[in-house]
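Continuing the series of single-chain predictions for the mutant panel. This is the parent chain; the variants come on the following pages.
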Amino acid sequence: MSTTKKTTASSPPGHDVFVTILGELIGVSILAVIADTNEEMGKVAVALMGGWLLIFLMTHDTFLKGIVNKL
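Parent structure:
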């Protein structure tokens, strides 16, 4: 006897995408405001963004492989 589990979505389809994009836009806006305050904070903001990019590329190897295959 097979058992199937029905999942019910509490939010409309695509809601998670909009929430993620909104969160990223807010984060980038905050980093841009911080980077604009002075030269030192700009360097810190760029270092943070570069570090997050490296962490993303290390944890999402399939994304990186897809880029390499297209080159």
